[in-house]
Amino acid sequence: MNKDIELLLVLFEHFNKVVGRTRLQKIVFLLQNKFNIKFSYKFISYYYGPYSKDLQFEVNLLNAMGMINVSAGDGVYIHTLSEKGVTTTKEIIEQRKDDPEIKELISRLDYFRDKDTSSLIIEAKNLIKNPETLFK
Amino acid sequence: MGADYELIKDPIYGYIKVFDHERKIIDTPIFQRLRRVKQLTSAEYVYPSATHNRFSHSLGVMHVAGEFTEYILDQIENLGRSDKETYYFLMRLWGLTHDIGHGPFSHLFDDVILKEYNISHETFGSKILMESSFLPDSFKLPNGGEINPKEVAQLFGIKDIEEWPLIESIGESDVSARALYYIAFGAYSADLLDYIRRDSYFTGAGYGNIDWQRLIYISKPDKNRITLDLRGEEAFDSLLLARLFMFSTVYYHRTSRAATRIMKFLLEEAKSKRILDSFLGNVDQYASLDEDSLLFHPTLTNSEYKNRLIFRDIPYTRVLETSIPIEPEEISAFVREDVLTETTRGNLPAKLKRTLPPDSFFVDTPKIPTNPMEGDLFIYIYNPDTGEVAPRNVWETRWGKMSREMAIVRLFIHHDYEKNEQDIREAFPKTEKRLSFY
């Protein structure tokens, strides 16, 4: 399993559920770019802040593999770990329990707990290069 | 909508209405440049008539978005004319301007130039709409209303329903403006309905003869979404097939893909010679950047790549090809071009490994998800007998399941290295041996 996917599973396990693709995108962006967690996604700046196609691809992949369940709420997607996902994630955490990378990731996740999505969008937008950088 | 308008002749729809405030956008340099950005970047090297551009496509999307919106809103009881017109004109403006940020060679420009700045043509389009001095500060509608460019700009590059900014109720009804998301980005969006038919017409490929009006006329607003009547399912499935065949025969045609490679080299050359700087000084200078101004830029007069494109001298031949339907559980490293190129190089005889230059061969693995919506999984099917709505996984057609994704894997060899063809072919990993994702 690739490294990004393992980190994503740990993230889903920690949060129980992630409400919103937009929220997930901004959390992973901030983990990668604010807290230097070693995700390897390429983010592009959009009207609603940074977005990574590769990240969305891997979330769809986790869903197709039966690791997470994605349900469509009222105009929002809700992500939860499946039973298979819980088992797999426990194995990953067990195998990598002394891995500083996993510890670092887990220690950063609580930062997002009380932040609403719109504040994450603002924070992420401030951190990504904006279109102005094209016009030097 | 009864206001005064002009008519523009179009081979796909017969006539397209253009209202005065739309004409004011069309007549600006920043919009006119779309005449010099081709809709299909490299298809004309295979299909000589496919020289149509993003200008006519934009008019087409405006037309379809307007028809679609009007039809959906007509089904909402007691909706006032002014509410109706606001959404109608907003969605038309989105259609008209949705491609305004595209650079020369469209998606390649995103990949080679804009990506480096973490932006896309959509981000750039929003910026143009809000800041270009060619465009008005406010779009004045025929009914006396106004639309702020920002209201249109915020509809660009939406990734899924979550981001769609229109969430209010439409008039007094229980239908939300969220439903309009499906007109712009749904599985049979106005953009898709136009480009499949337009590209099919101009290439002559013929696969795109879909019943777009049936899709629209058999759709209904349902609270937050648009549902498709059961009786329209065939029209929808035929759109999915048309799209797939358009990809395999046109968008991903082997010669077209090889030409794209040359365009990529040309853009890289333009970047390294800093030709683009003067066009990217501010949003208004961008109006002068298009495929003609780039190809005929004095600094590129003697460019090998430019001359190859002008004279259709495409120096690559495809020597191996396979098409692979991909199921998610087996999404494999096999269809990654970087992995395949590296493996092939690694398998070459030692001497060749050292001497063959990087552009002597390449592996190309374009992929098409069979679901036209980037990440949204469902369309909603309305059963008129029971009044029930059931979600359908897009790829589960009425007559069987499509693969979630299709990939075409090709090995191309540069004409100067034809003598090494046998060695390169043998070094290419066998298609049967798919590598596991893990």
Q: Mind sketching the topology for me?
A:
The complex is a heterodimer of chains A (136) and B (438).
Chain A: H1 3-15, E1 17-19, H2 21-33, E2 44-46, E3 49-51, H3 53-64, E4 68-72, E5 77-81, H4 83-95, H5 100-113, H6 117-127
Chain B: E1 5-10, E2 14-19, H1 20-26, H2 29-32, H3 54-74, H4 81-97, H5 107-112, H6 121-131, E3 139-140, E4 146-147, H7 149-153, H8 181-185, H9 190-203, H10 212-217, E5 219-222, E6 225-229, H11 233-251, H12 254-272, H13 291-295, H14 304-310, E7 316-326, H15 337-347, H16 350-355, E8 361-364, E9 367-369, E10 378-382, E11 389-393, E12 396-397, E13 400-401, E14 405-414, H17 421-427
Overall geometry of chain A: globular
* Overall tally of domains of chain A: 1
- Structural category of chain B is alpha+beta
Query: Could you give the order of strands across the largest sheet of chain A?
Result: 1-5-4
Number of strands of chain A: 5
Distance between the termini of chain A: 41 Å
Chain pair forming the biggest interface: A-B, 33 and 40 residues
Number of H- or I-type helical stretches of chain A: 6
Biggest pleated sheet of chain B: 4 strands, mixed
From the spread of the alpha carbons, the general shape of chain B counts as: globular
Please state the oligomeric state of the protein chains shown: heterodimer
Radius of gyration of chain A: 15 Å
**CATH topology annotation of chain A:** Arc Repressor Mutant, subunit A
Radius of gyration of chain B: 23 Å
